[in-house]
TrEMBL record:
Residues 18-140 form the SnoaL-like domain. It comes from Ramlibacter aurantiacus. This is Nuclear transport factor 2 family protein.
Amino acid sequence: MSTLLSDGVGATQAAALQELLDRAAITRVVQDWGLARDAGRWSQLRACFTADATMHTTWFVGSAAEFVERSIQAALAGVRSQHFIGAATITLRGNKAVVETRMILMLRAMLAGEEVDATCWGRFHDRFVRDAGVWRIKQRVPVYEKDRLDPVNPAATLHLDPDLLARNPVGYRHLAYLQSQVGAAITPGLPTPDSTALVHLEAASAAWLAQEG
């Protein structure tokens, strides 16, 4: 009687099962990140990243560890944001993976005396590694596709400075406008559809995934 790995069919089944387990583990990290970030579950958020992970956002570029600390400070200051996490596309190669996940970022803040909602659609572009047997994020770079800014009160009218609005790419200019008005330093040149930054990001991730180790 053959065991699971004693013949070609068994080995194929085992490899397929391992891939399913890897995909499920990666998907769980992607989902955990969103809820942990928004609900202030900071230990769980830290556990989503490798020790040397990096994070890019409209308001921060640096280590994931510092990103978590800055997120804690923002939460204590009353910043209110939510991340809707959608489906993930996962490309696996051994102990590495490139993962792209649909997302919607929602931020509520005050702008010129009016409460407003900024909504941004895009995707997370992640590099994952199996770290001591556990899948974790090594690098996260959002790709910002489109956004909008709306007053919470539908009777209110927003008046935006067109020059300030135009300083940032179309994919995240309304989000950046709001964040800059509440004191954030905006990251320039983040990936957006058809941008050079996106081409470079995808090429770099493909090369990283193809490397051994």
